[in-house]
Amino acid sequence: MINSHKVAGRPTVIDLFSGAGGLSGSFERAGFRTVAALDIDADCLETLKATKAARLSIAGSHEVYLAGAKLVLGDIRDVAGSDLLPADSPSGWRPDVLAGGPPCQPFSSAGAGLGLNDPRGQLFTHFVRLSEALQPRIILFENVAGLVTAKGPDGKPGGVLRLIQARFEEIGYACRFELMNAADYGASQRRVRLYMVASKDEALPQFPVSSHAERATSERLPWVPLATRIAGLSAPKADEIIRPKGKRAHELYALKPGSGLKSVGIVEANRPSGHWGYRQDCFLADPALPSRTIRAASTPDWIRDEEGLRRLTWRECAALQGFADGWEFMGGRTSRYRQIGNAVQGDIGTAIAAALAEAIAEPVLHQPASVAWPASFDRRVRYTAMEERVNGAHRRAARSHRLKGNELLCAAE
């Protein structure tokens, strides 16, 4: 029997790895009440506390964000399920949704790619542990697309995701996975992330159907451009504006929107001229498109304004990430960019939460079974395995060369 205890008539969510509250805010816009939000970052908790104290209204309702939420500063490895329960919960209470995105850096293309060898890459095991303790009706798991092809203990691409699925299945939860682009759900950001929903005694919820597309159709609206989203924001404050200087300024001014300065190419077996990309900190955004992925770095993309070039401000990045206007970010500028970039994008978060709310309102009770991975996952895994065979040795040698170069530079200093 389902014994989920509604709070003030609203379905409930507990947010693990909550960060600055991107996912909590998304769920609350879909009608949920956040019971607890947990994070290890002190600035993130201060952001949540300040936003809660500000009693920021949720558009379209009489509610305010984070009202009654238990805000927990702590390491998930030291947290028990009982630490996250509401004070007045009856025996056997369980949340409607347990949600979270464990740190993505171990599996991100922008990180070191250490995977399970990075201690943060093991934190999903505590997500599983708290799932077993709290017995949520539905689990929502979010992470970077790179998790699809991350190598498991056997060294094979896809192994980490298979391991994560197996761990949830071992505690009775069936799983469904999908890669979803936030721009397809009304966000002004092309942010592709992996999502998993899981349940154990109800039908597996479906992911929401996309509302937008790169090219409009009779069923989908066109993507929302970056320029449209930031046009309604107040003008940036002087101390928020960062403009290029010196030689770099001349290089950036020569760029066309939607392009950037190239990184140094790495010669590979099937790319003798070098495998290059755009430098993450030197890209000029195209205002007619949704932005690129907002990163957890204080070097976001450049845009043009009346005075020349400047970086997207942290407030603009927050808007592109779907945070409500007036969300009270705390900490210095670098911390604010980090909090914003690490968050779950709000538009797609609310679309998923709304779909879960529908499933919760009309549950179909039965023992579900995990759904096969999308065909795109298998193609990604096969391609990654092929790339490893062809270019793996080249990449490892290049990485070793860079590390040795850094060691020599440090020794010289």
Structure, described:
By secondary structure, the chain is an alpha/beta fold. The protein contains ten helices and 15 strands. It is globular and about 65 Å long. The C terminus is likely disordered.
Q: Which strand order do you get reading across the main beta sheet?
A: 3-2-1-4-5-7-6
How much strand content do the residues show?
Answer: 15-25%
Oligomer: single chain
What value does the average pLDDT take? 90
Structural class: alpha/beta
What is the N-to-C succession of helices and strands? Answer: EHEHEEHEHEEEEHHEEEEEEHHHH
**What low-confidence regions span 5 or more consecutive residues with pLDDT below 50?**
106-115, 406-413
Shape: globular
Please indicate the count of domains. 2
Cα radius of gyration in angstroms: 22 Å
Number of strands: 15
Instruction: Describe the largest sheet.
Output: 7 strands, mixed
Question: What is the helix tally?
Answer: 10
Relative helix content: 25-40%
CATH architecture of the largest domain: 3-Layer(aba) Sandwich
> Terminal Cα separation, in Å?
66 Å
Q: Determine and state the CATH class of the largest domain.
A: Alpha Beta
How are the elements arranged and paired?
Elements: E1 12-16, H1 22-29, E2 33-39, H2 42-54, E3 70-73, E4 97-100, H3 124-134, E5 138-144, H4 159-170, E6 174-181, E7 192-199, E8 212-213, E9 221-222, H5 226-231, H6 246-253, E10 259-262, E11 266-268, E12 271-275, E13 278-284, E14 302-305, E15 308-311, H7 314-320, H8 333-342, H9 346-361, H10 375-412
Parallel strand pairs: 1-2, 1-4, 2-3, 4-5, 8-9
Antiparallel strand pairs: 5-7, 6-7, 10-13, 11-12, 14-15
Helix pairs in contact: 1-9
